[in-house]
Amino acid sequence: MLQDLALALRLQALDRKIVSLETEIATLPKHIAEIEKRLESHTRRLEIDRAALTANQRDRKKLEGDIQVHEQKVSKLKDQMLGAKTNEQYKAFQHEIAYIEAEIRKAEDKILDLMEQSEPLDKNVKLAEGELKKEQQDVEAEKKRARERTAIDQKELAEEHRERKNIAEALNPRFYSEYERIRKKTRNSPIADATEGRCSACQIALRPQFFQDLRRGDVIMFCESCGRILTYNPVIDVASDVAATQQTA
Question: Do the beta carbons of residue 135 and residue 34 sit within 8 Å?
């Protein structure tokens, strides 16, 4: 095989590897953003649970404060009731005290309801906090792996670029220019095999004379249909080779 063609094959492999590495490097920040978004979702859920628990505690505290105010009113009314001069005044005090005490019972009932509601809320918060902590650890570990993978890819990419530069400089300038033109046109697939008498890329059969010229391997040839650089690599029939060797022996 011609030296330039052998180098071009290596160059094609490098170009494909470079694209693969660049794609992976570009994908990793998106992957990190996705896992951070997942973490944000867990954080928001915890904030909602905490807000619900805080509201519950705030409402209970307010009701407890209301009860304290009501009890003070009842105490004052009872003191005032002792100084009632008429039966009507006495009954009025009784009526007002009964109303306030009813309000106290309502507040106490609401406090009991809130206490019952607070148990699952408190449980949800603690569970969400535990899950968030684990999720944060998992995310940090995953981000670390992603950063390590990126560093490895970037190092390998730099090495691939160096090797590519060396190969490109070793190629015939005119042939390299053709290689680049075809590579850009075919998305990093400038070379195709024609061992079976047809271009492996476009699947168009080669003219018999063209195929014979290609098999000689003394010049670089291009597919007359798609324009790719063609290689001819005969398939080695191991069984036939072994049989021929045994016959010779």
Answer: no
